[in-house]
Amino acid sequence: MRKISIKIGLLFFCLIFTMEVCLFFLLHQKIAHTRIDEELSALVTRGNNHRDVLETYYNAETIQHIALMEVKSDTEVVITNYQGEIIISSTDITNEIRRLINTDKKEIHRNGQVIENDWKSKPYIASVTPFETGLDTGYVYMFKDTSQVKQLIKQLNRHFLIAGIATAIVTAIIILILSRIVARPLIKMKEATKKLSKGNFSIQLENKSNDELGELSDSIQRLANELNHLKTERNEFLASISHELRTPLTYIQGYADVAKRDHLSVSDRVNYLNIIIEEATKLTTLVTELMNLAQLDNNTFTIHKEWFPICDSLKKISKTIMPSFQEAGIKLVFICPKNYKISADPIRFEQILLNLLDNARKYSPRGTVTTVEVEQENSDLRIFIRDSGKGIPSKDLPFIFERFYRVDKSRSRDLGGTGLGLAIVKELIKAHHWEIEVSSEVNKGTTITIIARGE
Fold first, then answer.
1. Boundaries of each Histidine kinase domain copy (predicted)?
2. Per-residue pLDDT tens digits for 59-102
3. 3-state secondary structure of 11
4. Angle at 303 between CA 363 and CA 380, to 5 degrees
5. What φ, ψ does residue 374 adopt, rounded to 5°?
């Protein structure tokens, strides 16, 4: 048995067994006191019955009959007159019986009362009932040997001991089963966490409960899934970096080797050097974007927010990017009905818009229109970037903001870019505490919505 099931079992057993012992003790005391009270009450009642007979038929034969009846029973009777002289007795008079007979009887009730109830240390329990006839007055004393009461309590104790042992055994079995049932998911979770610590994230925990254990199991499973996803993403990230670095380096090395040949014409050499410069620029851009992502991941990327008119910022962005749209034959339209103010980092805001517009330009055919529209909704600003390009398949939409993720799996370099632009956009949006939404239809276009929360 596993340690945890032993601990849980012992803990449950100690708690339940302690509770059972307390309950059994209280129940035992209650039953024992009830049985003693019943014996004392029966003793008083028997004395009252003898009194009634004496007061109705008081003669020597009646007195003898009462004594004879008690000889055949488990109780004893002693009848005395008012002065305490013994008229008749069904047993030998012992010092204890004499002591009880000589007790003060001034306040004895007509219906009798108990004069000795100490069954643990005294030889008798006893009661006395007064009687009064025309011929005589006196008392009827009833005695019962406490050994009989002790035997009764002893039997009761034996029954309780047997019941207690049986209950403890049944409790232990039930707790053993329950502790294993409770411990089983914990043991599975422990084994799962061991696998996680060793780098094995492909675990599956079955959860059939809605309690805290079920929530813990769900949390571990989610952690495993996230770690597995991160591991896959890391491997893909490293593979992508290797690919993205190797390609420009290969171009640079290859064209550098060609450019240093003596027989090349000046124009060819310049052409090769331009290619080297172009690839070096791409390499610099890639490294810069990787550094930006690293800063964002380490929370060392600072955002300096300030209030500024959004329409003025869009005009500046339009001047920057409009030539590339004109060269691509795509119309770029800005719709800003009112010069709303936005709280943002101006440089990072411009970086977000330029990245998104650059993507729209790359994936839109000539003759189409790309629109940037600003709307206000309560205290929030919504910025819509709509294009009429190739669109994004629904299966790819959840992943477009991942690093190096490309809808075009062939990794064609015709469109340029590093595959990090949208990842940086996502991190910048998060740093501003904004939201970004994407909707798209294949061959119809894509709409990206930035929701800038008001402050």
1. 240-455
2. 888 888 888 888 878 889 999 888 888 889 988 888 888 888 88
3. helix
4. 70
5. -115, 130
Cβ pair 448, 436 in contact under 8 A: yes
Helices 346-362 & 421-431 angle (0-180, nearest 10):
150
- DSSP class per residue in 150-219: HHHHHHHHHHHHHHHHHHHHHHHHHHHHHHHHHHHHHHHHHHHHHHHHTT-----------SHHHHHHHH
Per-residue DSSP letter, 84: S
Which structural domains are found in the chain, ordered by start? 3-152 (3.30.450), 212-297 (1.10.287.130), 306-452 (3.30.565.10)
Q: The tokens of 239 are what?
A: 């593979």
Buried/exposed code over 66-76 (b: 16+ C-beta within 10 A; e: otherwise)? bbebbeeeebb
Please give the structure tokens belonging to residue 155: 């039997």
Long-range contacts of 236-239 (CB under 8 A, 24+ apart): 236/404, 237/403, 237/404
End-to-end CA distance of the chain: 58
pLDDT at 335 over 60: yes
